[in-house]
Every structure is written in structure tokens, then in C-alpha cells.
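Weekend entry, working from home. Most of the wet-lab plans are on hold until the incubator is repaired, so I used the time to fold the two sequences that have been sitting in the queue since the last round of cloning. Logging both here for the record. First:
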Amino acid sequence: MRRLNSKSLQNRPPKGPQKGAKRHKKCYVPFVLLCGLAICFPVVAQQRVLKDVFKNDFMIGAALNRRQIFEEDTRGAAIVRTHFNSITPENILKWALVHPDPNRYDFAAPDRFVEFGEKHGMFIVGHTLVWHNQTPRWVFQDEKGNPVDRETLLNRMREHILKVVGRYKGRIKGWDVVNEALNQDGTMRQSPWFKIIGEDYLVKAFQFAHEADPSAQLYYNDYDLELPAKRAGGVELIKKLKAAGVPISGVGLQNHNQMDWPSIADEDATITAFENLGVKIHITELDVDVLPRTTKPGADYAVDVEVTPQLNPYVDRLPDAQQLALAKRYAELFQVYLKHRDAIDRVTFWGVGDGDSWLNNWPMKGRTNYPLLFDRLGRPKPALRAVIMLKSGGLFSAEEPPEFLFEPFVPYCG
């Protein structure tokens, strides 16, 4: 989730020429005259960009969909180039897409993804190697549909990891090696990986990934680790992996948040708990669901219910009051991240603009959600300005929010 702050006024350029000042690229914005004519005047670009604001704290990343990777979504791709210095693929490196059949890999989209990141000097993350979801059934079955044995599944895991990680050796800098291995109560998820191989499937996955690229950072990634029981289970899991000599570099806290969960105290405690294990923290899938929920926290609780106006209240727009609440939520979250800047390497948003978000179709399909910092037209939201303001002014007052939260950004000329 995300929190607000007050920082945009400092970005206004000083009046008059400055000795030794860097010349700014000009861009043009229309001014409508009383006569109804519109003309353009040059202005100095003022919009602060996320990656610059937090350059001394942590990387700022975004998850890219296929249209952004191939730059068919030109607006989304431009936002990524401007504001982010790390990228993660939303889907194209998941097993079902990159390795859909036993003897077939599809690297067209991953190749473009890596090329995009390299072209723009970004830290490139691979997502994900071993997961219970979006993994084809054939991975776990023989030709008759029966479960394979331990050695067969280990061989398939190793072959897949060596092929995928090896192809991008030295180019993809970090990998979500194992994704979501825990239940909400902190026990091990009874996935096919666990049932067929055993708990050491995690050890093997990390070993194979390290074998494929010894220089890559390797992460364990999971959601809702802010739940006390799941947090405790996650801490024990990382301790076991480290005790087994696993080359684990960091823990990914997904941070699929709600407006009222997790609490700031729980977020702070969770980061502290993993920081104390001596691993780096990555906020990997950040968003804030602004819509009513019919389920508890958790990414496994999709529901098949009718979408009513009560469950989808903001079809046309997000009202100003909710915009402010979202901005404050983001600012408070980023305040926690900044507190732990020495432990956090990266903060990645799960999507670019509101229209890209998986939360428009989860936990139920066909809703209109507003979970990110850019709207459906690629325009910055008050939440973006609030996050940027943190670095200069701290949290704003929700009772008396600064008017410039809703002022349009001066266009950035990248």
C-alpha cells in the first residue's frame, strides 16, 4: 500500500538565468486565451520522476505486460522509461508461457523484455522459476497422466531452470526462484512440488538457479507475509535455506495491499524480521486495492460472485476523497520503506497504470480498480505526488491536504 507527502513545490525552477545552470530541454503546454485560441509557450520541465527522487534509497520498478514489452502500449512504455529503473515481467517468464510444452520454449517476449531493459539501463528481474500456479500439468505428470517420481520432477526442474536462467546469464540480474511456497498459517503449501519432491525442492531450485548463473541475485517471493503466523513461517523457511547453504540473496514481500491492511506496524515488523536474517528486502508486487473485498487477505481467494454496485462503486472515476485516502496510504507505506532504506534494494509496482492492473479482474472479474500511481490515461495521480513529497516534507494532513496534490504535473520531457 502507499502513503502521501508534500514535496512538489520545491521542483519549481528559480526565476531568471542561473550561473552554470544546466540547460533544460523544453516542452510545450497549451494555454487557452480568452478569445478561444490555443497557443503554446515553452516551459521548463518540472515533473520529478520516481527513480530520481529515490535514487539514493532504492530502485523503483514496474511489472510490464506484453504490450509494454513490445512497446505497442507506447504511453505505458514511455512511463516506464521515465519513472522506473527496474523492470519485472508480469507473465511472460512464467513456466506456462515460456515453456508450454515439454520440447518447446517461447523466448520471443522474454528476449524483447531483456532488450528493453538493457537499452534503458535498467535492473532486470526474472519472474518466476518455480511456482504452483501457471505451471503446465505435464510438468508433474507422465504420458498417462499419473504423477511423476521425485527424480523425474527434479530433472524437469533443473532442465527448465538451466535453460531459462542460462539464456539470460549476466543479463537478468535477479530471479524470483521460488514463489509462494507457504500457506497463510506459515506451514508449507502442499503443492505438487512439495508432494512429489519434498520440502527440499526449494533448496534444489536455488541450487539449480545458482548453477545456471552464479552472479545472479536469487530471491524467495511471497504475499501476505505481514500476517504474524505467515511471517513466522517465512522467517523459519529462510533460516532453513541459509542453514542448508542456499545462495539466497533476498526476500520478496509482494505487498498486494488493501486500504486498511496491513497496518503500518505490521509492515514495519515484517521488514524488520527479514532484515534481521541478513538478507536484502525487495518490495516486489506493490499495489493498493481501493475496492470492497469479500475475502480475507490473500492472492488465492478468487471468488465467483456477481459484481454489484456495492462491490464496484467507482465505475466512472475515483472520487477526490478516495484519491486522497489512496495517496495517504501510499505515503505512509513509503515512509516505512524509507525507514528501512538500508535493507530495501527495490520497490516494484505490479503494473504501470490502473488499467493494467490484475485487480480489475481479481478477486472477482469485471470491476474498475485504481491501485497504482498512474491512471488509465497515464496521468499521474495525487498518490504519485504524495510519494514524491515524502522526501522533502513528510506526510500531509488528510484533514487539510495541500491543494497542489490535485494540480496537473507539468509534462516531463524525457
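Second, folded right after the first finished:
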Amino acid sequence: MGQKELQRELLAVFTVASHSGREYVSGLFRRLANDLNWRLHLVAPEDFTARSLRTGNGRPYDGIIVSMPGTPDAMKALARSDIPTVLVNIEDASLAARERNVSAVWLDNGDIGRVGAEHLLAQGEFKSFAFVHKNTREFFSRERESSFRSTLAKRGIVSTAFDPATNDATTLAAWLKALPKPAAVMAATDERAVECLRACRAAKIEVPNQIAILGVGDDMSRSKLLPVPLSSVRPNYAQAGFLAMQELDRLYAMRGRRKYQEIVVPADGVSLRDSTKPALSASHLVRNALAFIEQNADRDLTPQTVTSHLGKSRRLVELRFGEICHKTVRMAIEDCRLAKACPRLRQTDGNVRQVAAELQFRSANALTRIFKRHFGKTITAWLVSEAGKSGQPSTAARQRRKATGKRPDSRPKPRTA
């Protein structure tokens, strides 16, 4: 009868106070559920010291997974040891230099940046795109920015980035205010995106109508507390935790024969919330309004009819029209209705009463007033100028000529002897 294998001791360095830490641990547990030979010891990064490398009975741990650096002495001791170790999304040159008995699992920051850029591109037409770094400009922030901007560059879009060297709330608010609107902004993390939301609020910038803001992390508990729920790229933390445990199994089984490996985990998509919702994009709003006006230009339309159809406030719709079209909603309605009225006025030789009835103007006088305000001349004067441009008689004149067989200005020919 074979001897039963002793239970292996696993030390996992995670912070469960954060959303990402809890997700990492959930993935780790999912893997451990299929392997009961590991006994888990969870420790916070601040409690991870050189002495932590040994179990309570004084022997080294059989495997270690680290998601956040511990104390400097702990990381140095770990680099000198040969304990099978998996690093999760952290940089440590001394540990990576071990070459054996160590591997790394990375969130694919390039994929996160790409997914963020493609999400914002899909939300509508923006006049500017920008990236906001995490305060410390860590490696993942640089990688996300690089991929975000290169994805946009492939579409011929020039973007910019906020330099955290000049970081303070006032500077950030001024920078956001200076972006051409509507703007699309991706922040390196959810935490940084929240700072952008606060800066926008302080600068009286509407989110997402003037600036769409996208975070990274998908911390739903944080998002629910915000005035504008935050859209966020979802890093696959749980899958990273699962793969870290799977890789540790391999390292342990190969007893130092497995060389350094890197495992990259792509993003899991985007959680769409109000901060980037396309329905609130200025260009989408105006485009939808103009389409509705065009479809209903043959009936009596008012700005209230348009805003009710859109389900938005009159103030918001007027603001968007001013930004995009440089005109009011009423002016857009009149432009469209007159575009339908003009051909009919030509065809009826200026029968204002008939055209006003067909297009449901409130009265012939209403059509006359709107026409003069728009063109700066009466309908009669406009018809004369249009006939002069074409060199052709009016429709009514053509009908009279057809009935009489004579030109309106023809005179009887003198009799000949």
C-alpha cells in the first residue's frame, strides 16, 4: 500500500480589501477545489516579511503566490530561495532572474488598452481622445496608454495623455476642461477614473455628454456610489488567480526543472454604464434628433415634440445642438420644413395657402413669416428670383400658355395686305 502524500503548504500574498485581490483569490480557490493536497495560508502584503517564508513548524512553504510586493526583506529572501513561486502582475527583477522555480502571470495591459480604445470608438463621434495615467505612472499604466493610443493611431486619430508629474485636482480639471468636446477619456484604473469624474464635477463638465470616462477594474461596489456610474474595462483577475495556482502545481511537480514562464491573461470585456453610454453622446443625440425632424417635416413640429421623442430635457438638447450644429432646435426644424416647402411653392406658383395646409403649418401667414425670416425676402420675391435664375416661366405661366396656345407676352401679328 502506497504512502499517502503529505498536504502541501501554500502561502498566498493578496490584499482582500481590494476588488482585484478578492477576484484573484476567488480564481485561486476555484483551482484549489480540484486539488485538496494544498493547504492555503493567506497573508496581507504588509505582513509578508522574510520570516513569512516558513510555516509555523519552521519548514519552508511548498509554494508561494505573490500578487503585491511585501516588505523589502521578504522580497530579497524570496529571490534567494528556491521555493516554487508565481508572481501575479508584479515586476520584480531579482525574482525573475531566478530563471527556475519561478513564473509570472500578467494581466494583458496591451489588450486592456486596446479594448478601452475600441469601446470608446464604438460609442459615437468624439472630437478628442485622451488617456489619464495613474499617479505613480507604473508599468501597467504606461503599457495601457501605449496600446490605447496606438489603437487610435491605426484609425488615424491623434490622442493625448495627462502627465501625472503635474498631478493635482485643479490641474487635472483644467486639462479636462481644455479638451475639445465631446471628448473620450480612458483612465489607467477605476480609482483614477473616479478622480476624473470629481474633476469634471468641479469644473462643471457634464459626463458623459461632454466627456465620456472609462476606467479599468470594474469595481461594482465603487461604481454604485458614484453620481455617474462608471463604465470599466474588466481585467480577468479571477482567471489570473486560477492560472497562477495551475502554474504553481506545474512548478512543484517539476521540482526545479521548469524554466521561467510568463502567462498573459487578456481582458474580459467592458462593463457599460452611464459614464460612456452612447445614448448620451452629443453626436448621437443630435443625429437622432435630425433624423426625427427629417421624417416628420411634413407636420407641425415643435422643439418640445423633438425633446419628448428623445426622452431628454429641452436644455440638454439645445446645448447639444449649439455645440454640434451652431443653431437652435427650432431653427433646425424650420430649415427642414422650408426645404420641403420650397419645391412645392415653385410647383404651385406660390400658392402659400395650399402648401401651408399640406405641410401642416399653423397658417399661411405663419409660413410667410418663417419664410421671410429665413430667406430675407417674401415668397413672391423669391419666386421671381428663382425664375430669373432658371430662365423659365413659372408653373402657372406654363399652364396658361398651354391653355391658350400663346406665350403670355405674345402680341397679335400685324395683318399683311
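Plan for Monday: verify the second prediction. The chain is about 45% helix and 15% strand.
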